[in-house]
Amino acid sequence: MYTVSSLKAELNERGWRLTPQRETILQIFQNLPKGQHLSAEDLHILLQDEGEPISLSTIYRNLKLMSRMGILRELELAEGHKHYEINQPSPYHHHHLICVRCNKTIEFKNDSILKMGAKTAQKEGYHLLDCQLTIHAICPTCQRSLLPM
Ligand SMILES: [Zn+2]
Ligand SMILES: [Zn+2]
Questions:
Q1: Which class would CATH give 1-87?
Q2: For residue 97, how far is its CA from the centre of ligand 2 (angstroms)?
Q3: N or C terminus: which one in the chain shows less Cβ crowding within 10 Å?
Q4: What is the pLDDT of residue 135?
């Protein structure tokens, strides 16, 4: 698990800064229940509830930047609607199976996907930040509700 201090040290090495705002955002993601993903709008409401309002445009900017830093993962779970979660290193690293009708999302682990990603990046001399597979499908409940047509 990333801690704020270990992350700060890592970011400093790479010349990035963990501003108090980004630290607050990181803490919210760290305290999320497993399997929960937040959109910028979700985060905006959470921050407001915690008495630390940050404007939506600042949130968008920070989420983008934190994804580029490799702290967060940007997920395309629903069409045109980005969600974010903390980017955990192995063994917490996971992928998503998502129902395109009700958005029910299941997280699953698969080491060979991560290994393939790492190998491919390495071969080309790239530094791997994340490797994610999103499977778009229709869940059993939605399949049943589609039947009587
Ligand atoms: Zn996830
Ligand atoms: Zn469904």
A1: mainly alpha
A2: 11
A3: C
A4: 93
